[in-house]
């Protein structure tokens, strides 16, 4: 697959989130933004310690990287939800067995339908004040005792160049969103672990973490049963 050109990435970055991903979808899997395979494999292995699972939901599924993980740890075909029609089209090609639903993750149309929900690499598209409605919708979509698993990569230390690259990216996006409409919400450093665990607990989860050696940790939030 051919990677997107600089011009294509620039057009995407100046669009809304939905339109931007519609444009990027055909080449998304050739970009560094796709969740890496080692991260997906580590998540799959960690999830097996908490199963078995019957039905799985991939929130903000994109082109469906998380659907492959769910297919390996759940008994039934997975469901993917996203608000980009272009990304869902690509997910359907890669995972024809999956049930794909176009919806806003902040208003999920499911009630007690799943016993596992996951989300990969999408949290940066939500502002801190949107975490509670996002988590509340996932909580509502799960059956009693169900798990929301949120893989979290190891954050770089301030002594590493990657730390300042991510910080600089967030600053550039804030400037972009201050002077350009429509906004494109994507930030890397707005969801610290303590805030995530606090908000998961507030909506009714019992939250903790499972180590994923070499890549990070899996935040495991269980709905009280």
UniProtKB/TrEMBL annotation:
In this protein, which residues make up the domain named Methyltransferase?
Answer: 57-146
Q: Mind listing the GO biological process terms from this record?
A: methylation
Q: Entry's InterPro entries?
A: Methyltransf_25, SAM-dependent_MTases_sf
Q: Which CDD domains match?
A: AdoMet_MTases
- The signal peptide stretch is none
Task: Write out the GO MF terms.
Answer: methyltransferase activity
Q: Which domain of life is it from?
A: Bacteria
Mind listing the UniProt keywords for this protein, alphabetically?
Answer: Methyltransferase, Transferase
Q: Does the keyword Signal apply?
A: no
Per its UniProt record, what Pfam families does this chain match?
Methyltransf_25 (PF13649)
Q: What protein name applies here?
A: SAM-dependent methyltransferase
């Amino acid at each position: 697959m051919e990677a997107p050109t600089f011009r294509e990435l620039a057009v995407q970055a100046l669009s809304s989130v939905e339109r931007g991903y519609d444009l990027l979808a055909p080449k998304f899997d050739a970009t560094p933004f796709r969740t890496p395979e080692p991260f997906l494999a580590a998540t799959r292995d960690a999830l097996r310690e908490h199963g078995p699972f019957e039905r799985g939901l991939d929130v903000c599924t994109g082109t469906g990287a998380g659907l492959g993980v769910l297919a390996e740890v759940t008994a039934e075909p997975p469901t993917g939800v996203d608000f980009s029609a272009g990304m869902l089209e690509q997910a359907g090609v890669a995972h024809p067995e999956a049930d794909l639903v176009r919806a806003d993750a902040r208003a999920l149309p499911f009630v007690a339908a799943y016993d596992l929900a996951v989300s990969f690499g999408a949290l940066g598209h939500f502002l801190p004040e949107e975490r509670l409605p996002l988590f509340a919708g996932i909580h509502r979509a799960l059956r009693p005792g169900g798990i929301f698993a949120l893989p979290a990569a190891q954050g770089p230390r301030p002594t590493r160049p990657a730390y300042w690259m991510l910080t600089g990216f967030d600053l550039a996006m804030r400037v972009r969103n201050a002077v350009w409409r429509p906004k494109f919400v994507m930030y890397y450093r707005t969801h610290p672990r303590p805030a995530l665990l606090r908000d998961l607990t507030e909506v009714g989860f019992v939250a903790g973490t499972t180590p994923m050696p070499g890549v990070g940790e899996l935040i495991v939030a269980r709905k009280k049963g």
